[in-house]
Write a structure and sequence with these properties.
about 450 residues; 18 helices; mainly alpha; Amino acid/polyamine transporter I
Amino acid sequence: MTKRQSLHGEWSSRWAFILAATGSAVGLGNIWKFPYITGENGGGAFVLVYLVCIAAVGIPIMIAEILLGRLGRRSPINTMRYLARQARANPRWQYLGWIGVLAGFLILSYYSVIAGWALAYVFRLGAGTFSGADAETVQAAFDGLLASPEILLAWHTIFMLMTMLVVARGVRSGLEAAVRFLMPLLFVLLAIMVGYAMSTGAFMEGVRFLFQPDFSKLSGTAVLVAMGHAFFTLSLGMGAIMIYGSYLPEKASITQASFYIAGADTLVALMAGLAIFPIVFANGMEPGAGPGLIFVTLPIAFGNMPAGALFGTLFFLLLVFAAWSSAISLIEPAVTHLVEDHGHSRIKACLWAGLATWLLGIGTVLSFNWGSEWTLFGKTFFDLLDFLTANIMLPLGGLFIALFAGWVLARRDSERELGDGWGYRAWRFTVRYVSPLAVFIVFLRSIEVI
């Protein structure tokens, strides 16, 4: 296969790529979703299954997606078009690229709105809004935020502007410069929050909840939730890892980088659990509080603890940074497509992609207030987008990435990029048989076929 160069530049080093891809993987899923689904599914046993799924499903598909990106060196659409042609395969494989680009675009349209909630809470906690507040007051404040389309739209707009300002600057000046700042700061903030959790008097209770398995609490549904989250938390199937892989220097090890990224992503999720659960237990709250754990339960706790306003502000700042690092990767595939196929400058491509994403996000804004009664198949606009992307597009994207890398791509091409030792043979077996089967089961479960 002919060696290609990216039209959009390269990361300055392997570590720049690892930081960027970790930033893509680390997001609301780690700090918002992982703690509450762990709480809902019994703690330690769920975490153990999740870690096994990261190793058996997440890492092999991540290696495959980075591999395809570096071989193609273009947007996901043009990468799949080129690789299918080189493999003399059906040209319809390019639709895999379209699934990734479209999924990233759709996800960012509602992700930006939820990130806007976190932005709003940075200022609310900083202003001491929840100092001494009871559960009813905090719930009313959250309900009031969702009921105001003007406020939600303002925060959605600010977050989209933050995202597009980074992406418009390109690979090294924008994406790389941002993650070099955001990712170390994110880990520092997390470490501060874990340190604070140690002072609550319930830290060991939180540790036991996270790491002491009780398999009596583990259901079949919990196993599927763990498998699904292990897949989604690594940003697989949405074009982001593929486009970031297209900027990866030739000599960098794909396998090694994938293990570092998955390790860092998992570490952030576990640290988030260590920061959150001791605070929850110290205040006599339920770990299985669901999605409201971050925006309702924690503000009550922060409002009733010493220096709660300071640490609450730091926590939501952490949430914003995690969302920001993911958001810049979600829009990047669409921007590169506009540059390559429509001849736009990068700034013009950012303007068009950003405007389209912002406009679609208005549908999510209205889903929580004026448009809450506008439903299709019993789902609001937000629920429909969330279901379409998380339950259909991403699993299908991951499934076809595994099938293409394992069955369509010439063995000599993957072997040349990944090496020919026992590690390569283990990856090839896993990506051909284990990962596709696991993702397919998650897909069937998520659309409620089984």
